[in-house]
């Protein structure tokens, strides 16, 4: 229960971070943010306090979800720090802005995800908004790349998830039904390839979808700081999360294949001994 409460409070803190750090947040916006933070905290507590699987995948296979949470939290926090530095500059906000500007400029080339994200802005967007979006995008993309690289090292070098004991497919993959038809191994491999491929394409798809939707409805202006924070965070986090999920499912597929091979070899040895 203590772990579930801690996770719930951390999720609430993540959602409330922009309202806590950004200056001049309206009272109505703060109330709505507080409501969403409390709701997310309750849902997280219920999920992790239960012994039965529900929605969260890899719940008992740390540090998969911890790594994703840390990546999202740092993305939101650092973009908030950059935006806060425009009114209350500090040495930290200046360093983060410089780092994000360097990475954003390096990745802002034709047909790149950062360029497509900038093209999502209206044609009459101010230059300061363009530079801010490029800086935030560069920093968010760096964090997502670090998260994916860290998880890949955990899988390849440290042998995730076997170092934490037996892997329970029912608890850690609640939405995967091994008896749903077809070979479970092939389905895992197919889902892994789909998640990795779609994760690579998502940074290109999200700006295009938002730009197309802008022609049909009147969207919330991305010039709003909180809108910019969550848009850029989702743009960087969702693809990284899907790629990490694909890597994890591919790893589970390898474990199942190795287990089948060992069982088959033991059965053959038993027949030869008999």
Automatic annotation (TrEMBL):
Bilayer-spanning residue ranges: 37-55, 67-85, 139-158, 194-214, 234-254
Entry annotated with the keyword Transmembrane: yes
Lineage, highest ranks first: Bacteria, Pseudomonadati, Pseudomonadota, Alphaproteobacteria, Rhodobacterales
Origin: domain of life: Bacteria
Keyword annotations from UniProtKB, A to Z: Membrane, Transmembrane, Transmembrane helix
Protein name, as recorded: Uncharacterized protein
């Amino acid at each position: 229960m203590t772990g579930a409460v801690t996770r719930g409070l951390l999720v609430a803190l993540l959602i409330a971070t922009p309202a806590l750090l950004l200056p001049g947040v309206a009272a109505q916006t703060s109330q709505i943010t507080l409501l969403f933070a409390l709701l997310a905290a309750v849902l997280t507590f219920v999920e992790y306090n239960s012994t039965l699987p529900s929605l969260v995948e890899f719940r008992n296979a740390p540090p998969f979800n911890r790594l994703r949470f840390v990546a999202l939290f740092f993305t939101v926090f650092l973009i908030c720090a950059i935006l806060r530095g425009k009114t209350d500059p500090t040495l930290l906000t200046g360093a983060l802005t410089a780092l994000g500007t360097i990475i954003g400029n390096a990745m802002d080339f034709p047909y790149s995800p950062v360029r497509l994200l900038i093209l999502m802005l209206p044609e009459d967007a101010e230059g300061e908004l363009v530079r801010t979006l490029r800086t935030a995008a560069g920093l968010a993309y760096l964090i997502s790349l670090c998260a994916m690289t860290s998880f890949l090292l955990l899988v390849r070098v440290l042998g995730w998830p076997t170092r934490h004991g037996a892997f329970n497919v029912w608890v850690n993959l609640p939405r995967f039904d091994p008896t749903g038809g077809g070979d479970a191994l092939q389905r895992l491999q197919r889902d892994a390839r789909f998640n990795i491929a779609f994760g690579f394409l998502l940074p290109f798809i999200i700006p295009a979808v938002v730009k197309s939707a802008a022609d049909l409805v009147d969207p919330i202006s991305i010039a709003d700081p909180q809108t910019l924070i969550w848009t850029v965070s989702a743009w960087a986090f969702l693809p990284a999360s899907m790629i990490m999920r694909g890597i994890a499912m591919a790893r589970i597929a390898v474990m199942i294949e190795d287990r089948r091979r060992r069982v088959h070899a033991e059965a053959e040895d038993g027949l030869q001994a008999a």
